């Protein structure tokens, strides 16, 4: 690798790298948010208790079958193939001329939604059954139980998996170059084609991808720690207070009695 060429490529093509990285982040952020919303909706629907008989049971079975087909199809096929089918297929079959960025966001969203729906369903199933029974005992229906009791816990539990999906989407947007989306990989390929320095050009792209994914990972871990709250709490009457390291030391010196 030539250091001189590396500097020259960055100085001459910096704006193109930045634009490509911006498009990559834009598609990844919007696609992950929309995909997570799709996953939450599907996860709630797929965990609705099935009645023993009646038209509601038939309706739920049909809905679950359709959702299962959607999930299995988008989890079982590569995103690059989905992009080709959705973008070019819709143009050939229905005459729909989709905007490339809109098509990219749509593809990333429905692909993420298929994965997130299973993550959400697993998170809901992991919640103790007693919480569902307690909520139903005080008169809550399934939707109320989900939004008031279950989903706040599920969202916290699936945050690492959601962050992982976000990181995957940042990297997987590179396949969208097949429909000429000008994300980071597409821009890098254009730069490398102009100067014929493929190693140096893609090395720069590699570093940019790493910076984006590393930064996102650290931000998500910070959010997780904030949601977890402090490690130490002590109860005083009917109030819960945070126990700081100074409080712990003072309590130890006073024989275990907290002083506030």
Automatic annotation (TrEMBL):
Its main location: membrane. GO terms for cellular component: ATP-binding cassette (ABC) transporter complex. One of its GO terms (molecular function) is transmembrane transporter activity. It is found in: Cell membrane. Residues 21-220 form the ABC transmembrane type-1 domain. Gene3D superfamilies: MetI-like (1.10.3720.10). GO terms for biological process: amino acid transport. PROSITE patterns: ABC_TM1. It is a multi-pass membrane protein. Keywords: Amino-acid transport, Cell membrane, Membrane, Transmembrane, Transmembrane helix, Transport. The keyword Transmembrane helix applies. Pfam families: BPD_transp_1. The chain crosses the membrane at residues 23-46, 202-223. Belongs to the binding-protein-dependent transport system permease family. HisMQ subfamily. This is Glutamine transport system permease protein GlnP. It comes from Clostridium homopropionicum DSM 5847. The lineage of its organism: Bacteria, Bacillati, Bacillota, Clostridia, Eubacteriales.
